[in-house]
Design goal:
With 410 residues, the protein is mainly alpha-helical. Helices cover 73% and strands 5% of the residues. It contains 18 helices and three strands. It has a three-stranded antiparallel sheet with strand order 2-1-3. α7 packs antiparallel against α14, α13 runs antiparallel to α18 and α17 packs antiparallel against α18. The relative contact order is 0.08.
Length: 410
Protein backbone atom coordinates (compact mmCIF):
# COMPACT_ATOMS: atom_id res chain seq x y z
CA UNK A 1 0.00 0.00 0.00
CA UNK A 2 1.42 3.45 -0.88
CA UNK A 3 2.75 5.67 1.89
CA UNK A 4 2.01 9.39 1.85
CA UNK A 5 4.01 12.08 3.60
CA UNK A 6 1.95 14.98 4.92
CA UNK A 7 2.36 18.38 6.54
CA UNK A 8 -0.47 20.31 8.12
CA UNK A 9 -1.94 22.00 11.17
CA UNK A 10 -4.15 20.36 13.79
CA UNK A 11 -7.18 21.90 15.48
CA UNK A 12 -5.01 23.43 18.20
CA UNK A 13 -2.88 25.26 15.61
CA UNK A 14 0.16 23.00 16.07
CA UNK A 15 2.27 21.78 13.16
CA UNK A 16 1.68 18.15 12.24
CA UNK A 17 3.81 16.09 9.87
CA UNK A 18 4.32 12.41 9.34
CA UNK A 19 3.40 9.54 7.07
CA UNK A 20 0.19 7.66 6.36
CA UNK A 21 -0.58 4.48 4.44
CA UNK A 22 -3.55 4.75 2.11
CA UNK A 23 -4.68 3.25 -1.19
CA UNK A 24 -4.95 6.67 -2.84
CA UNK A 25 -4.06 10.31 -2.27
CA UNK A 26 -7.74 11.23 -1.86
CA UNK A 27 -8.24 8.58 0.82
CA UNK A 28 -5.13 9.83 2.65
CA UNK A 29 -6.44 13.40 2.51
CA UNK A 30 -9.89 12.34 3.77
CA UNK A 31 -8.34 10.32 6.62
CA UNK A 32 -6.24 13.26 7.76
CA UNK A 33 -9.20 15.63 7.52
CA UNK A 34 -11.25 13.28 9.71
CA UNK A 35 -8.49 13.52 12.31
CA UNK A 36 -8.85 17.31 12.37
CA UNK A 37 -5.67 18.03 10.42
CA UNK A 38 -5.69 20.79 7.82
CA UNK A 39 -3.31 19.47 5.16
CA UNK A 40 -1.17 21.89 3.15
CA UNK A 41 1.28 19.34 1.71
CA UNK A 42 0.59 15.72 0.73
CA UNK A 43 2.81 13.58 -1.48
CA UNK A 44 3.51 9.92 -2.01
CA UNK A 45 6.78 8.97 -0.39
CA UNK A 46 9.20 6.42 -1.77
CA UNK A 47 12.79 5.48 -1.04
CA UNK A 48 13.91 6.90 -4.40
CA UNK A 49 12.38 10.33 -3.85
CA UNK A 50 13.70 10.43 -0.29
CA UNK A 51 17.29 9.82 -1.31
CA UNK A 52 17.05 12.34 -4.15
CA UNK A 53 15.83 15.11 -1.86
CA UNK A 54 18.65 17.52 -1.13
CA UNK A 55 19.50 17.91 2.52
CA UNK A 56 19.24 21.69 2.00
CA UNK A 57 15.50 21.29 1.39
CA UNK A 58 14.83 19.20 4.48
CA UNK A 59 13.52 20.61 7.73
CA UNK A 60 16.24 21.96 10.01
CA UNK A 61 15.80 20.77 13.57
CA UNK A 62 17.20 22.73 16.51
CA UNK A 63 18.54 20.56 19.29
CA UNK A 64 17.37 17.01 19.83
CA UNK A 65 13.80 15.99 19.15
CA UNK A 66 14.15 13.02 21.50
CA UNK A 67 12.48 12.98 24.87
CA UNK A 68 14.83 13.03 27.87
CA UNK A 69 15.77 9.51 29.07
CA UNK A 70 13.92 10.04 32.36
CA UNK A 71 10.64 10.84 30.56
CA UNK A 72 11.07 7.81 28.29
CA UNK A 73 11.66 5.68 31.38
CA UNK A 74 8.38 6.91 32.89
CA UNK A 75 6.49 5.89 29.74
CA UNK A 76 8.26 2.52 29.61
CA UNK A 77 7.32 1.74 33.23
CA UNK A 78 3.70 2.74 32.65
CA UNK A 79 3.47 0.66 29.47
CA UNK A 80 5.01 -2.32 31.27
CA UNK A 81 2.33 -2.14 33.98
CA UNK A 82 -0.47 -1.80 31.43
CA UNK A 83 0.81 -4.68 29.30
CA UNK A 84 1.12 -6.79 32.44
CA UNK A 85 -2.55 -6.09 33.15
CA UNK A 86 -3.35 -7.51 29.66
CA UNK A 87 -5.37 -4.49 28.58
CA UNK A 88 -6.36 -3.87 24.97
CA UNK A 89 -4.06 -1.67 22.89
CA UNK A 90 -6.71 1.05 22.54
CA UNK A 91 -7.18 1.13 26.33
CA UNK A 92 -3.41 1.29 26.91
CA UNK A 93 -3.10 4.20 24.50
CA UNK A 94 -6.01 6.04 26.10
CA UNK A 95 -4.59 5.66 29.62
CA UNK A 96 -1.10 6.83 28.66
CA UNK A 97 -2.42 9.82 26.68
CA UNK A 98 -4.74 10.89 29.52
CA UNK A 99 -2.27 10.46 32.40
CA UNK A 100 0.93 11.92 30.97
CA UNK A 101 1.93 15.49 31.80
CA UNK A 102 4.22 15.79 28.76
CA UNK A 103 2.51 17.37 25.75
CA UNK A 104 4.66 15.58 23.17
CA UNK A 105 4.01 12.17 24.74
CA UNK A 106 0.27 12.86 24.72
CA UNK A 107 0.34 13.92 21.07
CA UNK A 108 2.41 10.87 20.16
CA UNK A 109 -0.07 8.46 21.71
CA UNK A 110 -3.02 10.30 20.23
CA UNK A 111 -1.54 9.87 16.74
CA UNK A 112 -0.68 6.25 17.53
CA UNK A 113 -4.26 5.67 18.67
CA UNK A 114 -5.56 6.97 15.34
CA UNK A 115 -3.42 4.45 13.47
CA UNK A 116 -4.52 1.61 15.76
CA UNK A 117 -8.13 2.61 15.14
CA UNK A 118 -7.38 2.19 11.42
CA UNK A 119 -6.32 -1.41 12.07
CA UNK A 120 -2.53 -1.06 12.45
CA UNK A 121 -0.77 -3.18 15.10
CA UNK A 122 0.20 -1.14 18.17
CA UNK A 123 3.98 -1.53 17.93
CA UNK A 124 4.02 -0.65 14.21
CA UNK A 125 1.68 2.29 14.75
CA UNK A 126 3.98 3.48 17.55
CA UNK A 127 7.02 3.21 15.25
CA UNK A 128 5.30 4.96 12.34
CA UNK A 129 4.41 7.99 14.47
CA UNK A 130 7.64 8.05 16.45
CA UNK A 131 9.53 11.34 16.60
CA UNK A 132 10.40 11.53 20.27
CA UNK A 133 11.35 8.06 21.53
CA UNK A 134 14.69 6.35 20.99
CA UNK A 135 15.05 3.65 18.35
CA UNK A 136 15.90 1.24 21.17
CA UNK A 137 12.49 1.92 22.75
CA UNK A 138 10.70 1.23 19.45
CA UNK A 139 12.73 -1.91 18.76
CA UNK A 140 12.01 -3.43 22.17
CA UNK A 141 8.33 -2.60 21.83
CA UNK A 142 8.18 -4.47 18.52
CA UNK A 143 10.03 -7.51 19.87
CA UNK A 144 7.96 -7.56 23.06
CA UNK A 145 4.75 -7.28 21.08
CA UNK A 146 5.77 -10.27 18.94
CA UNK A 147 7.18 -12.48 21.70
CA UNK A 148 4.67 -11.45 24.40
CA UNK A 149 7.52 -10.29 26.65
CA UNK A 150 6.77 -6.56 26.54
CA UNK A 151 6.55 -6.09 30.35
CA UNK A 152 9.97 -7.68 30.93
CA UNK A 153 11.65 -5.74 28.14
CA UNK A 154 10.06 -2.42 29.06
CA UNK A 155 10.98 -2.81 32.75
CA UNK A 156 14.60 -3.53 31.79
CA UNK A 157 14.59 -0.66 29.32
CA UNK A 158 13.23 1.70 31.98
CA UNK A 159 16.07 0.71 34.32
CA UNK A 160 18.63 1.39 31.57
CA UNK A 161 17.06 4.77 30.78
CA UNK A 162 17.04 5.72 34.49
CA UNK A 163 20.78 5.02 34.64
CA UNK A 164 21.35 7.08 31.50
CA UNK A 165 19.26 9.93 32.93
CA UNK A 166 21.28 9.92 36.16
CA UNK A 167 24.53 10.12 34.17
CA UNK A 168 23.19 13.02 32.11
CA UNK A 169 22.25 14.89 35.29
CA UNK A 170 25.74 14.41 36.72
CA UNK A 171 27.35 15.78 33.57
CA UNK A 172 24.95 18.73 33.43
CA UNK A 173 25.55 19.66 37.07
CA UNK A 174 29.31 19.38 36.60
CA UNK A 175 29.17 21.83 33.67
CA UNK A 176 27.19 24.49 35.54
CA UNK A 177 30.21 26.12 37.25
CA UNK A 178 32.33 26.29 34.05
CA UNK A 179 29.41 27.93 32.23
CA UNK A 180 29.09 30.49 35.03
CA UNK A 181 32.79 31.27 34.68
CA UNK A 182 32.43 31.79 30.92
CA UNK A 183 29.41 34.07 31.30
CA UNK A 184 31.13 36.07 34.05
CA UNK A 185 34.22 36.52 31.85
CA UNK A 186 32.07 37.70 28.92
CA UNK A 187 30.18 40.14 31.16
CA UNK A 188 33.42 41.58 32.59
CA UNK A 189 34.88 41.99 29.10
CA UNK A 190 31.75 43.84 27.93
CA UNK A 191 32.00 46.20 30.93
CA UNK A 192 35.60 47.02 30.00
CA UNK A 193 34.81 47.41 26.28
CA UNK A 194 31.69 49.56 26.57
CA UNK A 195 32.21 51.54 29.80
CA UNK A 196 35.70 51.53 31.28
CA UNK A 197 37.79 51.93 28.12
CA UNK A 198 35.70 54.85 26.72
CA UNK A 199 35.98 56.60 30.11
CA UNK A 200 39.78 56.43 30.11
CA UNK A 201 40.43 57.43 26.50
CA UNK A 202 39.62 61.18 26.87
CA UNK A 203 42.26 61.54 29.58
CA UNK A 204 45.03 60.31 27.26
CA UNK A 205 43.76 62.44 24.40
CA UNK A 206 43.67 65.56 26.60
CA UNK A 207 47.27 64.95 27.70
CA UNK A 208 48.42 64.28 24.14
CA UNK A 209 49.51 60.77 25.06
CA UNK A 210 49.08 57.62 22.97
CA UNK A 211 46.35 55.26 24.14
CA UNK A 212 47.77 51.93 25.46
CA UNK A 213 47.57 49.04 22.96
CA UNK A 214 45.08 46.81 24.79
CA UNK A 215 42.92 49.81 25.73
CA UNK A 216 42.94 50.90 22.09
CA UNK A 217 41.95 47.37 20.99
CA UNK A 218 39.03 47.43 23.44
CA UNK A 219 37.90 50.76 22.01
CA UNK A 220 38.01 49.43 18.43
CA UNK A 221 35.99 46.38 19.41
CA UNK A 222 33.45 48.56 21.20
CA UNK A 223 33.16 50.93 18.23
CA UNK A 224 32.70 48.05 15.80
CA UNK A 225 29.97 46.39 17.90
CA UNK A 226 28.22 49.73 18.43
CA UNK A 227 28.25 50.68 14.75
CA UNK A 228 27.68 47.27 13.23
CA UNK A 229 25.70 45.42 15.90
CA UNK A 230 22.91 44.54 13.47
CA UNK A 231 25.36 43.20 10.89
CA UNK A 232 27.17 41.24 13.59
CA UNK A 233 23.91 39.77 14.87
CA UNK A 234 22.73 38.76 11.39
CA UNK A 235 26.13 37.27 10.57
CA UNK A 236 26.09 35.25 13.79
CA UNK A 237 22.57 33.98 13.09
CA UNK A 238 23.51 33.06 9.52
CA UNK A 239 26.61 31.26 10.77
CA UNK A 240 24.58 29.29 13.34
CA UNK A 241 22.01 28.29 10.69
CA UNK A 242 24.79 27.22 8.32
CA UNK A 243 26.47 25.08 10.98
CA UNK A 244 23.16 23.44 11.94
CA UNK A 245 22.36 22.70 8.29
CA UNK A 246 25.81 21.22 7.68
CA UNK A 247 25.74 19.11 10.83
CA UNK A 248 22.38 17.64 9.81
CA UNK A 249 23.61 16.59 6.36
CA UNK A 250 23.79 12.77 6.04
CA UNK A 251 27.42 12.81 4.85
CA UNK A 252 28.65 14.78 7.86
CA UNK A 253 26.56 12.70 10.26
CA UNK A 254 28.18 9.54 8.92
CA UNK A 255 31.64 11.13 9.16
CA UNK A 256 31.11 12.29 12.75
CA UNK A 257 29.85 8.86 13.81
CA UNK A 258 33.11 7.34 12.62
CA UNK A 259 35.49 10.15 13.58
CA UNK A 260 34.22 10.56 17.15
CA UNK A 261 36.02 7.39 18.26
CA UNK A 262 39.38 8.86 17.18
CA UNK A 263 39.02 11.98 19.31
CA UNK A 264 41.36 12.20 22.32
CA UNK A 265 39.79 11.77 25.77
CA UNK A 266 36.17 11.65 24.60
CA UNK A 267 36.75 9.02 21.88
CA UNK A 268 37.11 6.03 24.25
CA UNK A 269 34.10 7.21 26.25
CA UNK A 270 31.94 7.45 23.11
CA UNK A 271 33.09 3.99 22.01
CA UNK A 272 32.39 2.36 25.38
CA UNK A 273 29.01 4.11 25.68
CA UNK A 274 27.92 2.70 22.30
CA UNK A 275 29.16 -0.79 23.22
CA UNK A 276 27.18 -0.60 26.46
CA UNK A 277 23.99 0.29 24.58
CA UNK A 278 24.51 -2.51 22.06
CA UNK A 279 25.18 -4.98 24.89
CA UNK A 280 22.03 -3.89 26.72
CA UNK A 281 19.97 -4.27 23.54
CA UNK A 282 21.46 -7.68 22.74
CA UNK A 283 20.99 -8.95 26.29
CA UNK A 284 17.36 -7.89 26.53
CA UNK A 285 16.59 -9.42 23.14
CA UNK A 286 18.20 -12.66 24.28
CA UNK A 287 16.13 -12.63 27.47
CA UNK A 288 12.99 -12.19 25.36
CA UNK A 289 13.71 -15.49 23.64
CA UNK A 290 15.47 -14.25 20.51
CA UNK A 291 18.43 -16.34 19.21
CA UNK A 292 21.84 -14.68 19.28
CA UNK A 293 21.87 -14.02 15.53
CA UNK A 294 18.53 -12.18 15.67
CA UNK A 295 19.51 -10.40 18.90
CA UNK A 296 22.70 -8.99 17.35
CA UNK A 297 20.85 -7.81 14.26
CA UNK A 298 18.06 -6.35 16.35
CA UNK A 299 20.57 -4.43 18.48
CA UNK A 300 22.22 -2.95 15.37
CA UNK A 301 18.83 -2.04 13.89
CA UNK A 302 17.92 -0.27 17.13
CA UNK A 303 21.17 1.67 17.50
CA UNK A 304 22.10 2.27 13.85
CA UNK A 305 24.88 0.78 11.73
CA UNK A 306 26.95 3.76 10.58
CA UNK A 307 30.07 3.14 12.64
CA UNK A 308 32.71 0.48 13.20
CA UNK A 309 31.22 -0.83 16.44
CA UNK A 310 27.83 -1.49 14.90
CA UNK A 311 29.60 -2.96 11.89
CA UNK A 312 31.33 -5.43 14.22
CA UNK A 313 27.97 -6.57 15.60
CA UNK A 314 26.65 -7.00 12.05
CA UNK A 315 29.72 -9.04 11.09
CA UNK A 316 29.23 -11.20 14.18
CA UNK A 317 25.65 -11.98 13.13
CA UNK A 318 26.85 -12.91 9.64
CA UNK A 319 29.52 -15.16 11.15
CA UNK A 320 26.85 -17.00 13.13
CA UNK A 321 24.85 -17.46 9.95
CA UNK A 322 27.91 -19.13 8.39
CA UNK A 323 28.42 -21.41 11.40
CA UNK A 324 31.30 -19.45 12.95
CA UNK A 325 31.26 -18.09 16.49
CA UNK A 326 30.41 -14.43 16.98
CA UNK A 327 33.42 -13.99 19.28
CA UNK A 328 35.83 -14.86 16.44
CA UNK A 329 34.25 -12.15 14.26
CA UNK A 330 34.58 -9.57 17.05
CA UNK A 331 38.30 -10.25 17.37
CA UNK A 332 38.83 -8.86 13.87
CA UNK A 333 37.96 -5.40 15.19
CA UNK A 334 40.78 -3.76 17.20
CA UNK A 335 38.37 -0.98 18.26
CA UNK A 336 36.68 -3.35 20.69
CA UNK A 337 38.20 -3.38 24.21
CA UNK A 338 39.75 -6.55 25.58
CA UNK A 339 37.24 -6.94 28.40
CA UNK A 340 34.43 -7.13 25.85
CA UNK A 341 36.22 -9.72 23.71
CA UNK A 342 37.13 -11.97 26.64
CA UNK A 343 33.79 -11.86 28.46
CA UNK A 344 31.76 -12.26 25.26
CA UNK A 345 33.76 -15.33 24.26
CA UNK A 346 33.33 -16.87 27.72
CA UNK A 347 29.60 -16.17 27.67
CA UNK A 348 29.15 -17.61 24.17
CA UNK A 349 31.20 -20.72 25.00
CA UNK A 350 29.47 -21.47 28.31
CA UNK A 351 25.98 -20.48 27.10
CA UNK A 352 25.76 -17.70 29.72
CA UNK A 353 25.83 -14.80 27.30
CA UNK A 354 23.12 -12.66 29.02
CA UNK A 355 25.17 -12.71 32.25
CA UNK A 356 28.36 -11.98 30.31
CA UNK A 357 26.77 -9.04 28.51
CA UNK A 358 25.54 -7.68 31.83
CA UNK A 359 29.08 -7.93 33.21
CA UNK A 360 30.42 -6.12 30.15
CA UNK A 361 27.83 -3.40 30.69
CA UNK A 362 28.81 -2.96 34.33
CA UNK A 363 32.56 -2.87 33.64
CA UNK A 364 32.40 -0.48 30.68
CA UNK A 365 29.80 1.74 32.37
CA UNK A 366 32.04 2.05 35.42
CA UNK A 367 35.07 2.86 33.23
CA UNK A 368 33.09 5.44 31.25
CA UNK A 369 31.84 7.12 34.41
CA UNK A 370 35.37 7.29 35.86
CA UNK A 371 36.72 8.78 32.63
CA UNK A 372 33.86 11.28 32.47
CA UNK A 373 34.43 12.35 36.07
CA UNK A 374 38.15 12.81 35.42
CA UNK A 375 37.48 14.86 32.29
CA UNK A 376 34.88 17.00 34.03
CA UNK A 377 37.17 17.49 37.02
CA UNK A 378 39.82 18.83 34.63
CA UNK A 379 37.48 21.20 32.80
CA UNK A 380 36.91 23.53 35.76
CA UNK A 381 40.57 24.17 36.75
CA UNK A 382 41.74 24.41 33.12
CA UNK A 383 38.93 26.78 32.20
CA UNK A 384 39.51 28.79 35.37
CA UNK A 385 43.21 29.08 34.53
CA UNK A 386 42.58 30.14 30.91
CA UNK A 387 39.88 32.68 31.80
CA UNK A 388 41.94 33.90 34.74
CA UNK A 389 44.94 34.55 32.50
CA UNK A 390 42.77 36.38 29.98
CA UNK A 391 40.98 38.50 32.54
CA UNK A 392 44.21 39.06 34.46
CA UNK A 393 45.92 40.34 31.30
CA UNK A 394 43.00 42.66 30.64
CA UNK A 395 42.98 44.01 34.20
CA UNK A 396 46.77 44.40 34.14
CA UNK A 397 46.47 46.49 30.98
CA UNK A 398 43.70 48.64 32.47
CA UNK A 399 45.64 49.15 35.71
CA UNK A 400 48.70 50.08 33.65
CA UNK A 401 46.59 52.71 31.88
CA UNK A 402 45.34 54.03 35.23
CA UNK A 403 48.93 54.31 36.49
CA UNK A 404 49.90 56.19 33.34
CA UNK A 405 47.03 58.58 34.03
CA UNK A 406 48.47 59.21 37.52
CA UNK A 407 51.88 59.92 35.99
CA UNK A 408 50.29 62.37 33.55
CA UNK A 409 48.47 64.10 36.40
CA UNK A 410 51.67 64.58 38.38
Amino acid sequence: MPEFFYKGIDQAGRNENGSLEASSEKLAFDTLSSRGITVFELSERSLETETKTSWLLRDIQFGSARLPPGEQANVAELLASLFRAKLAATEIIRIVASTTHHAEVRRHFERTGQRVADGVQFSYAFAAENRSFSLLFVSFLKVGDTANTAPLLLDSLAEHLRTQSATDRKITSALVYPMILVLAAIALTMVVVFFLAPSLEPIFLAAGQQTPTILSACLRVGDFLSNYWLHSLLTTIAFVFSVIALVQSPALKTYFRTARFRLPLVGPMARDALIVQLCVATRLLLLSGEPLLAALRGAVAAMGDNDRISEAFSEASEALEQGVSAASAFRAYPELPGVFLELFEVGETTNTLPDALNSIREVLSAQTEVRAQRLLSLITPVLTLVLGLGIGTLIYAIMGAVLEINEIAF
